[in-house]
Design goal:
Ald_DH_CS_GLU; Aldehyde Dehydrogenase, Chain A, domain 1; alpha/beta; Aldehyde Dehydrogenase, Chain A, domain 2; 26 strands; 7-stranded mixed sheet; cytoplasm
Amino acid sequence: MAGTGVFEDLAAGEDTFKFYSEGKWQESASKKTVNVVNPSTQKVQYKVQACTQDEVNAVFASAKVAQKAWAKTPLWKRAELLHKAAAMLKEHKTPIAAALVKEIAKPAKDAVTEVVRSGDLISYCAEEGVRLLGEGKFIMSDSFPGTDRNKLCLASKIPLGTVLCIPPFNYPVNLAVSKIAPALIAGNAVVLKPPTQGAVSGLHMVHCFHLAGFPPGLLSCVTGKGSEIGDFLTTHPSVNCISFTGGDTGISIARKAGMVPMQMELGGKDACIVLEDADLDLVAANIIKGGFSYSGQRCTAIKVVLVLESVADKLVELVNAKVAKLSVGMPEDDAQITPVVTESSANFIEGLVKDAETKGATLCQAYKREGNLIWPVLIDHVKPEMRIAWEEPFGPILPVIRVKTVEEAIHHCNASQFGLQGCIFTQDINKAMFISDAMETGTVQINSAPARGPDHFPFQGIRDSGIGTQGIPNSILLMTKTKSTVINLPSASYTMG
């Protein structure tokens, strides 16, 4: 892939890729690379540059210069370039999707969908940015008690400066552009640090912005080991905003980064609460979709089912029948269950299964694993003392906890360290709203599995699930600050000549 078509500039050798700085594709002075391992083969698929701290400094220096000019660029021109980038992304969806298949084992059809969705996100962001940022607010002083009509305040939105964007492995293109596009339309510069697993598709995505004609230095992409440049990036004095999606690392970043605006989407233990009057066929279909798509490697995946005892047997029966029909195999073949991203992830998932089984849970399917490929398992009769009741597996295993009351289900949901999303299944809208109000989580879906999109909806978590609200309009506003200009008029005693 590295040496084909419009992406030739990225190549630094066979399946080795450069990083992007000052509008150019470059090899690191370190002369070192980082391996990207194919989850399916467990062999090295690609190599990316191991950037140095000096190269990070150079990236931020060029970003600062480029941002000053970009902030003065008319909104319509910013939007025009974003539309071009979106078109480029869709035009080159095939090679980018191929990288997603090889480096994160995303099923082929889903990989193409991610790229196309990312193009749509960029275009929507361009239009929304023009609407949001093209308006100011005019305030008169005499609207406050005791004040005369002698001051006029014009409040407008201006960029923060340089935004550091760090997406996760599972959606390295979509969750990168969900950060990059709002930052750019708002007038900021962007430094992107892609995940190692997902770096190559991320680099190809950045090249689409390059082809669209964005100014040199405005968007950069650095790759490397987190142990060498991770903290250096997140604590860099030139960072004016951090947008991060991932796991526990985000908590560490938040503690170290200091006084910069942050947008953090972290882990989730998204609960599915099933009431006695629920449409169980609908519930079962959504549990499969929500719990097992992309092998459960989604922040918004259903991570625990809390079902009323009276309907638990029937629901488990329905879900088991659907689990049996899930195809298991390689992402190139569009299998529904594909290898999880790393061997360490597979080992962690296996530990959760073994812990539950040892403590008395029922495995509805025999546990089976080949390398990073884990067959889907529904785990019934899970108790609070089991790790799987609380920990986020990020794999194709799903615990079922049988509860006696709705209050018990709500309590379990709220006792979690996470609070990203949840869902409720019932035919009683009054009960649904009552439970939604009681659930301490960022988003609650009624009669549907949790989902991030549509991408213009607000999306946020509480507790260890993150800070700041995402969704295109929210992201644009978070990446700006208010600038007030006050015109002081003559006092009331002043008269015209």
